[in-house]
Fold:
Amino acid sequence: MAQQETDQRMNNEAAVAEPGDGFVVDTEDAEARELAHRERGTSRPITVVGNPVLHKECQDVTEFDDKLAALIDDMFASQRTAEGVGLAANQIGVDLKVFVYDCPDDDGVRHVGAVCNPVLEELPPQERRLDDSNEGCLSVPTAYVSLPRPDYAVVRGQDAQGNPIKVRGNGYFARCLQHETDHLYGYLYIDRLSKRDRKDALRQMEENTPRYEVVSNG
Structure:
């Protein structure tokens, strides 16, 4: 996910433990963990709307090995190069259900982590408070459009070693979790817009130049 317009592998991953309530602690040593991933990784160009890998459900992660760990490192490096707060594997052309994030919540607390095979929990109606903020996407570069989403989200999945995890977020971070999970099931945020707003987003993309390298669709 794009930022708002206004705004040792095993050891590093093990630093993100779970508290008693079962939710991952993704705020501890956030800066050091993100830096370690990024320094090991290699930045890759970003795929953009129209690339087939973005418009279909990705394959489940079944091998939790060094290859997956290296992919996660590359994703963190790519995310930083593009100045994003979340990145799904298909955004660098990889057909696997994994996303990374380095995103603040509405209290300014930084969250850093990776989720494999994410599933977004359905919120009960009484917990569905919509936040109608602007949203952007690295795969729809330079475009920002308002999109209502719940201001709280819970994602279940697995970590880089295959252990079950739960991640929760509020505000901007909740938007990020929903946005990145959508990616891995073949949906861009513009797919949730009205025809008029989608057209506006694509117009913004056409009229501006991304600040990072992208993969040409043709």
